């Protein structure tokens, strides 16, 4: 699949793009491409934003700049891009990202639009197929949100995570029937008086499986009660 990220700060993705599962995804033929809106702006002095109509604080990313970037990259009218791929605006006003949405996105090519400042001009609604939030709080830009979406999606692609068992038995996965994962422990078996549960050291696989199922249910129930 192709994940194209439109941003004013492509350098923010350098660390993420170098992560081993992301480079493995590239080896498998998937692509993470970065596009700087500024490289395609039709305005002088590389302008990309402007003051909000009606007044108020901050700057707004211009719709003509976003449209020009989409048309330069895809060579089709900007409102036709969503006919070929999911065009996703990252915004705190969007549908909250969850595992089901990540799985849905994994079946498509993606174009992720990062906002900055006060966000993107509302007329971006004419260009997108989805508006996605990564949580009910405000970040300074869409880059971290785009990485969260890309990462949740890339984990769904076969072969990207080297051990396939890691992804079938993790939180929200079908093997756990959408529940949270059970607690994980490793050596040392005791640290400053904090002990690993005896059952995990017992070598009794059936008992371990029963304990994990109970713990998984308990963690899920506690999270549901809190939300
Ligand atoms: C400072 S925010 C704009 C917030 C906007 N003025 C508001 O009050 O809703 C700038 C950009 O960060 C990104 N962003 C901020 N919080 C986000 C969130 N929770 N989920 C996804 N993107 C977010 C969006 O791309 C947004 O356009």
Round the Cα radius of gyration to an integer and report it: 21 Å
CATH topology of the largest domain: Alpha/beta knot
CATH architecture of the largest domain: 3-Layer(aba) Sandwich
Question: So how many helices?
Answer: 8
Structural class: alpha/beta
User: Can you tell me the CATH class of the largest domain?
Assistant: Alpha Beta
Distance between the termini: 34 Å
What is the overall silhouette? elongated
Determine the fraction of residues in helical runs and give it as a percent range.
25-40%
Overall strand count: 9
Number of domain units = 2
> How large is the share of residues in beta strands?
15-25%
Largest pleated sheet: 5 strands, parallel
Strand order of the largest sheet: 2-1-6-5-7
The CATH H-level superfamily of the largest domain is SPOUT methyltransferase, trefoil knot domain
Question: How does this model look, in words?
Answer:
By secondary structure, the chain is α/β, with parallel strands linked by helices. The protein has 2 domains: 2-154, Alpha/beta knot (3-Layer(aba) Sandwich), CATH 3.40.1280.10; 170-226, Orthogonal Bundle (Trp Operon Repressor, Chain A), CATH 1.10.1270. It contains 8 helices and 9 strands. It has a 5-stranded parallel β-sheet with strand order 2-1-6-5-7, with helices on both faces. The longest helix is centred in the last third of the chain and has 22 residues, at 205-226. It is elongated and about 70 Å long. The model has no long low-confidence stretch (mean pLDDT 97). The structure holds S-adenosylmethionine.
